[in-house]
Structure formats: C-alpha cells, structure tokens
C-alpha cells in the first residue's frame, strides 16, 4: 500500500485517539494499562499494534471495540463513540481463539451475527456462501468446529467477522496459537482479503515479521505503563508475497521495529 | 493359557461381565437368605427336637412364608404373581401401583425441572438472588425428606388439595435441587471470549440467553435430569408412605411391612429400582440424540 495520506480510499479518519489513559484498579495497586495514547488510523489502513506482553496492545484494541472503557482521554470510532460504533456493528472482532460455538456447524456459526443483525434466512445463506468462498472453505458448511483444524477454524472466525460487512476488522493475535507454516499462509490470505475488501484492520501481534509483512502502519508499544513508542509507516507493494521478507526494505523496517521495542524495554526497566 | 483366553472373550463384551456380576449378586443373596433366616429356623428345629443338616437348613430358609430375607426365586415368584397374573386394574397388581407412583413422580419431575430452571435463571441474572437464594436451596435439602413429607401432605390436604398433586410436590422438592445446581453451572459455562463475542455483535440479553447460555447449558441439564428423575421416584414412594395412600409402590411397601410380607416388600423394591433405571436410561437416550443433533462429540 502506498502512503495512507496519498491514497484515494484512505482520506477519512476511521479511529481517532487523543490522550487516552486506562487504569485498572486492583486490590494492591492501580495498574496503568494505557498511558497517554495518541493515534490516528485512516480508513483502509492496516495497522499493527506490536509490543511485549503487558504493553496494553490488546487493551487498546478492546477500548476501540468498547469491550473496555478508558479512564480518561477521547476516542472516536467512525466518527462516533466506541459504544455507538459497537451498537451499529461497525467492527468484526477476531479473538486469539476461533471462539466458534461448538453446537453450531460452520455455516450456522457464520449466521450468528447475521441473525442478530436481522438478515433473512435467504440472505444469511448467500452471505455465508460468499464469505466461506473468500476464505476457501466451500464444502465445509455442514461440518462442526471440532472437525476442522485450528487454522481452518480461525478462517471461519475471520469469515464470520466479515460476513455482516463491518467498516473495520479488529484482530487480537488471531494466528498466535497456530504453527508457523499455517500462520505464514494465513498471513498471505489475510493480506489478499484486506486488499479485496478495503477494510480498516487493527491487528495485535507480537511477531515482528507478521507486523511488517501485513501492515501499512506499525504501532510499537512498550509496557508498564503501556504507551506508544513509535509509529512506522511502510510502503510495500499491494500484491506482495512472503518473498519480500528477504528484501533490504523489509529488513530495514524490521530493524526499526526491533529498535523501537528495545527502546521501550530499556525505558520500562 | 486356554482358560485365560476364554476369560478374555467373556469379559470383553458387555453381556459377559453383567451376567457374571448378576450371578455373584444372586449367589450372595441366597447365602444371605440362609444366614439371616437361620436363627429362627434353628430355634424351631431345637424346640421340636428335629435333627437338621446344612442342606435342610438351606432348603427351608429359601422357602419360608415370612422370611427375614426372601430368596431370589421367591421374589421372582411374587413378581410374576403381581405383575403377570393379576389384572392391571386389580389392587394387587404391581403394574397398577407402579402406574400410580409413576404418574406422581413424572408430574413432580416436570414441576421440579421447571422450578429448577426458573430458579437457576434467577440466580444467574439477578445478583441479589445469587447471594440470597442459594443458602436456602441448600438448607432445603438438609431436611430429611421423611420428616417433611407428611407435613406437606397434611398441610396441602387441609387446604383441600388432595390426590396426585401433594405427592408430586414431594418429588418436586427433591428434583429441583440437582437441576438448580447443574443449570447455574451450565448457564455460567460459556467462557469470557464467547460472552465478549456476543457483546461485540451488540447482542441483547435475550439473544445472549437463547443463542449462547441455553445451548451451552444443555449437557449440564442432562447430567442433572438423570439424578432428578431417579429422585422423583424416591419422592413419590416416600410421599405414599405416610398418607395412608390406597395406591402406589409406597403403599405396597407399607402394607408389606404391616403384615410381615417380605416377599411383597422386595418385589415392590425391585419394581421401583427397575423403573428408576429405565427412566435414567431414557434420559440418557434423549441426551445422546440431542447431542447428536447439536453436533457435539459424545
């Protein structure tokens, strides 16, 4: 993707976060999960949040999704409060685990959000077919989750998140539990999906190659308190494959991210 | 070696072990009948100066009219007499009495399951009920059912409620407890990620309940129902004991002990346990078929 600001489809701001803090009150002492976060995400961006565990990257994603309330600061999602955005079903959320309902078959799992959005049975069927084909799972409609591999389950989960055509896709380490081979393949698939659907994607990861390969914008975070160290924009071609991992540009960006993480680590300790 | 192989063949199926276990129980039963009935018989032999051998003692103790413990074939004869030979409408037919017990047990089971589910939903959704209700529910089960059953029957009787309903209430009293405990656990069983998932779709409370919590609770419900249905029979029998009831297995047990007819008592007991076992296995079958329809691994 070319630079977000110069891209035609990416002019409007999708997510705007200013001076956001979040403190968890615990019995012993308050935990500063997020501290003074400022971040603008344009629509059509693929943004990765990367950092060590405990840096608040998942918490930040949950704040965007209105699954967590900030203590102070402002945040707008698609021009609305996160709460309104959630009520409008503005995002599809992909969790660390596939989170499929074990008593529903694959097709029926994809119908779940559609049922709640009030789609007709006919439309549900049409959309589940459309999105299952997008993640290459046609033929598995009637299978149950336990009959699929972990990678396939996570693809179902992505199809489900896209099925009701939300503006954004929020992904919380979706490939963290998968083996590296599956993970590489799903990374390429996800890149193509992003390209096809033009969604805004916010992607939490702790893998540098994954973040650099997928993102148009990489947000490097550090822990205790969780804050943003650096925002790195990338400029790889849209139809890239994993071959670019050998190119000097890729290694250069990876190095930048690694330095950012190291800097955050030194600050923290 | 050969003996080992034969043993393996016998024990590998499901019939072999059952047959062996039942044979052992019957042998122990016969031995027990001799042991428990012997003191009375030996007294009689000595009073009448009769010489006796062990084989005579065994034969006699297996054919007494009012034994302390009747032998299996005496109970079998009683069962045949009261189940096959009597007309179903007869007051002496165990089929008739089983029907009486079964109908109040089933009504009590249905009411208990309904009450249990209702209470569990209240406990899961209303924090105040969560804190206040559970201690009372547990306390209710620490009261001996034998103590409370006559009071319930008498109190309801004085209010003009007689017949099936008071008896069913005792079954309900026993049944609702496992259902509450199981369903509270079941309704709370969906993990936090699934709850967040529903939240991310801005699902309503009703949608979370019907699409997530209820399906997730089904396996827990069936585990509870198996306990509850067996308890419903116990409840119905206990309810028939104090009421001077005209019908039911409990009434048979009572009249059996009035007249020292141990054969009758044992026949009624065995009938009750066969009914309970059958009901539990019916629930088990329903569970398997629903699991299959829900695509769950069994």
Protein traits:
heterodimer, A: 269 residues, alpha/beta, 9 strands, B: 298 residues, mainly alpha, MetI-like fold, 2 domains, 12 helices, globular
Most extensive protein-chain contact, per-chain counts:
A-B, 25 and 19 residues
Question: What topology, given as strand order, has the largest sheet of chain A?
Answer: 5-6-7-3-8-9
Total DSSP E strands of chain B? 0
Q: What is the approximate shape of chain B?
A: globular
The first-to-last residue Cα distance of chain B is: 37 Å
Descriptive overview:
The complex is a heterodimer of chains A (269) and B (298). With 269 residues, chain A is α/β, with parallel strands linked by helices. Chain A has a domain at 96-165. Chain A is 37% helix and 23% strand. Chain A has eight helices and nine strands. Chain A has helices spanning 57-64, 82-87, 106-116, 121-134, 150-163, 180-197, 208-214, 248-268, and strands spanning 13-24, 31-42, 46-50, 72-77, 91-94, 168-172, 200-205, 217-222, 227-233. In chain A, the strands form two sheets. Chain A has a six-stranded mixed sheet, sandwiched between helices. Chain A has a three-stranded antiparallel sheet with strand order 2-1-4, covered by helices on one side. In chain A, strand 6 (168-172), helix 6 (180-197) and strand 7 form a beta-alpha-beta unit. In chain A, helix 3 packs across helix 4 (121-134), helix 3 (106-116) packs parallel to helix 5 and helix 4 (121-134) packs across helix 5. Chain A is globular. With 298 residues, chain B is mostly helical. Helices cover 80% and strands 0% of the residues of chain B. The mean pLDDT of chain B is 88. Chain B folds into two domains: 2-68, no CATH class; 94-293, Orthogonal Bundle (MetI-like fold). The A-B interface holds A 65, 67, 86-89, 91-93, 95-97, 99, 101-105, 112-113, 115-117, 144, 146 and B 193-194, 196-197, 199-203, 207, 211-212, 215-216, 218, 294-297.
